[in-house]
Amino acid sequence: MPTHPFGSRAVRTEQARILRGALAAIRPERPAAAFDLDSTILINKARQARIVREYGAQIGDSHLAACPPEAVISWDLRDTARLCGLTEEEAERIYPALKEFWRERFFTSEYCKDDTPVAGARDFLQRVLQAGGEILYITGRHEEMGRGTVESFRRAGFPLPDGQNIQLWLKPLLADDDDAWKEICNRRLVEMRGIACAFDNEPTHVNTYKRSFPQAVVVHLDTDHSRRPVEILPDIPSIHDFVMVP
After folding, report:
1. Which residues partner with 239 through β-bridges?
2. Under 8 Å CB-to-CB from 235, ≥6 apart: which residues?
3. Other beta carbons less than 10 A from residue 173's beta carbon
4. CA–CA dist 53, 117 (Å, integer)
5. In what order do the strands lie in the sheet with 217-221?
6. Distance between CA atoms of residues 18 and 244, nearest Å
7. Of the candidates 22, 26, 37, 206, which has an alpha carbon nearest to the alpha carbon of residue 137?
8. How far is CA 141 from CA 106, 144, 171, 186, in A?
9. Are 214 and 43 in contact (CB under 8 A)?
10. Cα–Cα distance measured from residue 158 to residue 215, given in angstroms and rounded to the nearest whole number
11. Backbone phi, then psi, for 28, in 5-degree steps?
12. 94 and 81 in contact (C-beta within 8 Å)?
């Protein structure tokens, strides 16, 4: 099944209309707006670059120790290593140890607090509240990452979870499957009042939202994803970010 290159599905000139439509869908009887986190309203490139820098410092590699966020272009750490100045052979050689070093740190509060906001996300979240909406941050992150996640919200100026109109839904354990967790969240949403709109970067997840809530405005973030060969449903629009340029 063919997949589109990242960023090729969204049309910048359509973005403001799509976002206005999502805000207009918010109603007193259906006020919830669901937001995924990673690659939807938050960017984790700074987190990844920090991990690479620390690994470089540990092994005495000046190229990796200077890794900037711009060198993180995919989930393959070998790409990052090459952009930092390593040869292809050097990147392959250090990859197993770098990956293990990364795995031990990436899914922790200490590192996820460094995440930065997607363009326009802070203002759009405020618009949701101004429209009478409720914010549900629904993520595949696990509970141990909660403290760092909230700290990244604070730094980004996002509305902070209050347990009522603004909620953060975290899966219990890192080992819990992301897709299964999102299905659990979907069932919770059905038992509530459904959703007015939803935003996610994963094709599987936006498709599930649309099938579960066909009246909702479901929007795909055309940033990156797991590269599974899943086609996005044709009635789901894509956006690059949350900047509402006319």
Report:
1. 221
2. 210
3. 10
4. 21
5. 166-171, 134-142, 32-35, 197-200, 217-221, 238-239
6. 9
7. 37
8. 11, 8, 6, 16
9. no
10. 27
11. -55, -35
12. yes
Measured distance CA(210)–CA(193) in Å, rounded:
15
> pLDDT tens digit string along 49-91?
999 999 999 999 999 999 999 999 989 999 999 999 999 999 9
Structure token pair of residue 40: 């939807």
| pTM exceeding 0.70 | yes
Q: How far apart are the first and last CA of the chain?
A: 34
Per-residue pLDDT band for 118 (boundaries 50, 70, 90) equals very high
The 10s digit of each residue's pLDDT in 170-229 is 999 999 998 899 889 999 999 988 899 999 999 999 999 999 999 999 999 998 756 667
CA nearest neighbour of 148 among 123, 179, 111: 111
Helix axis angle for 88-106 and 45-59, nearest 10°, is 110
**HEC string for the chain:** CCCCCCCCCCCHHHHHHHHHHHHHCCECCECEEEECCECCCEECHHHHHHHHHHHHHHHCCHHHHCCCHHHCCCCCHHHHHHHCCCCHHHHHHHHHHHHHHHHHHHCCHHHHCCCEECCCHHHHHHHHHHCCCEEEEEEEEEHHHHHHHHHHHHHHCCCCCCCCCEEEEEECCCCCCHHHHHHHHHHHHHHCCCCCEEEECCHHHHHHHHHHCCCCEEEEECCCCCCCCCCCCCCCCEECCCCCCC
Which residues have C-beta within 8 Å of that of residue 21, sequence separation ≥ 6? 217
d(CA 19, CA 198): 11
